[in-house]
């Protein structure tokens, strides 16, 4: 119902929308490839619904690939936090976009993931946008929108 599309618009890989999306008072359609790369290294992080991992790499190598670009986490932190969304956490971000993050998790692991997510929000003041079809993290939300 448009949740993945919405995340795609905010992350800049989809442009098939009408209207204007502003980031720091700039229309995101005007951003260059270099500017998008910079934003994705320091301001925007995303966990895709389909995970979009490189199949030829192990899970940990997928995480290390992202972390090697940003230097955000130590090897010890990666080992402690290792869940599907760790790759997203391996970069600083003003906003994290999570598209259906619960779809691959049982309740116990969803609770672990929610706790890690909340710690990231508390520590870094990161904003979070989560899409979901029914399942949602058991956390306090500032706003919930239904599409």
**Poorly predicted ranges:** none
Strand content: 5-15%
Specify the number of helices. Answer: 6
Helix content: 40-55%
Question: Helix and strand string, N-terminal first?
Answer: HEEHEHHHEHE
From the spread of the alpha carbons, the general shape counts as globular
Mean pLDDT: 84
Write down the Rg.
15 Å
Sequence of strands across the biggest β-sheet: 3-4-5
Q: What is the number of E strands?
A: 5
Structural class of the secondary structure composition?
alpha/beta
Please, could you describe this protein's structure?
With 147 residues, the chain is α/β, with parallel strands linked by helices. The protein contains 6 helices and 5 strands. The strands form 2 sheets. A 3-stranded parallel sheet has the order 3-4-5. It has a two-stranded antiparallel ribbon with strand order 1-2. The protein is globular.
Helices, strands, pairings?
Blueprint: H1 3-11, E1 22-23, E2 26-27, H2 33-42, E3 44-47, H3 59-70, H4 75-81, H5 86-89, E4 95-99, H6 107-124, E5 127-131
């Amino acid at each position: 119902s448009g949740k993945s599309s919405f995340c795609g618009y905010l992350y800049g890989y989809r442009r098939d929308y009408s209207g204007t999306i502003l980031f720091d008072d700039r229309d995101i359609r005007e951003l260059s490839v270099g500017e998008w790369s910079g934003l994705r290294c320091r301001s925007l992080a995303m966990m895709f619904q389909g995970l979009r991992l490189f199949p030829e790499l192990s899970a940990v190598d997928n995480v290390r690939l992202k972390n090697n670009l940003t230097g955000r986490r130590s090897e010890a932190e990666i080992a402690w936090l290792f869940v599907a969304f760790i790759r997203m956490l391996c970069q600083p971000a003003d906003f994290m976009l999570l598209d259906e993050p619960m779809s691959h998790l049982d309740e116990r692991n969803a609770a672990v993931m929610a706790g890690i997510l909340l710690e990231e929000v508390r520590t870094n003041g990161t904003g979070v946008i989560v899409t979901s079809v029914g399942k949602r993290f058991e956390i306090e939300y500032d706003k919930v929108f239904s599409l």
